[in-house]
From TrEMBL:
Keyword Glycosyltransferase attributed: no
InterPro entries registered for this protein in UniProt: Metallo-B-lactamas (IPR001279), NDM-1-like (IPR050855), RibonucZ/Hydroxyglut_hydro (IPR036866)
Domain Metallo-beta-lactamase: residue ranges: 11-208
Top-level EC class: hydrolase
GO molecular function: hydrolase activity
Keywords per UniProt: Hydrolase
Superkingdom of source: Bacteria
Name of the molecule in the record: Putative metallo-hydrolase YflN
Record EC number: 3.-.-.-
Length: 224
């Protein structure tokens, strides 16, 4: 049975997913590597036990400590190639606020981070059995060009920032799904949400807030 453990961070969630082997999904903001390592240790996982560091996308709050964590663990970093340039440069692509008030958040999230080259590509349809996870990769662009979700064989999913839960990073109503505050391509984001509603009918684990149920995403018509 696959187990999921949320590691709450300053701006986002990292996830430890344990199937046959432990896998870290997302890597927090710059400077949060030690905090993540402490969280793993509390869960009984030492850095060298990680099979991989899987990034749902290459924004500062999800990839910021990836270099430090790779150096500490030796685990390979996986990322969709469309976000590879952002990861290598340590600079995010265009952040387009979905609402005018979301512009106020730009100074908080738009920061450079230590860049690195991904070790392994994530492509649409890839299976992750080699990492001990009964899951496949679904390319879900929109928030960023290389955003991916992981769909597990039981219908549950990890979706990164495809949707967010609640307000203020999930401090308020974390189980209420909402569109993310930023997206490179809003129509493409909604198309990706629609695809995931078909691909993953179970529980979605998020990069901010959550988890949420696929049915609640459908009820709120976030794909329209």
């Amino acid at each position: 049975m696959t187990q999921f453990f949320t590691l709450p961070l300053r701006l986002s969630n990292a996830l430890l997913v344990v199937g046959e082997r432990p896998v870290l999904i997302d890597a927090g903001s710059p400077g949060e590597g030690k905090r993540i390592l402490r969280g793993l240790s509390t869960l009984g996982v030492e850095p060298q036990e990680l099979a991989a560091i899987v990034l749902t996308h290459a924004h500062t709050d999800h990839a910021g400590a990836a270099l430090a964590l790779r150096e500490a663990s030796g685990a390979p970093v996986y990322l969709h190639p469309a976000d590879g340039d952002m990861l290598a440069r340590g600079v995010m692509g265009p952040l387009r606020p979905l609402r005018f008030r979301h512009r106020l958040l730009l100074p908080i999230v738009d920061h450079p981070f230590p860049g690195l080259r991904a070790d392994k590509p994530l492509e649409d349809g890839d299976r992750l059995d080699g990492l001990g996870l009964s899951a496949r990769v679904v390319h879900t662009p929109g928030h960023s060009a290389g955003s991916v979700s992981l769909v597990f064989d039981d219908g549950d999913a990890v979706v990164g920032d495809l949707v967010i839960g609640g307000l203020l990073g999930g401090l308020i109503a974390p189980a209420v799904p909402r569109l993310p505050y930023f997206a490179e391509d809003v129509p493409l984001l909604k198309q990706s949400i629609g695809r995931m509603l078909d691909e993953a009918p179970g529980v979605w684990r998020l990069g901010h807030g959550g988890p949420v149920r696929s049915a609640s995403v459908r009820r709120r018509e976030l794909q329209k």
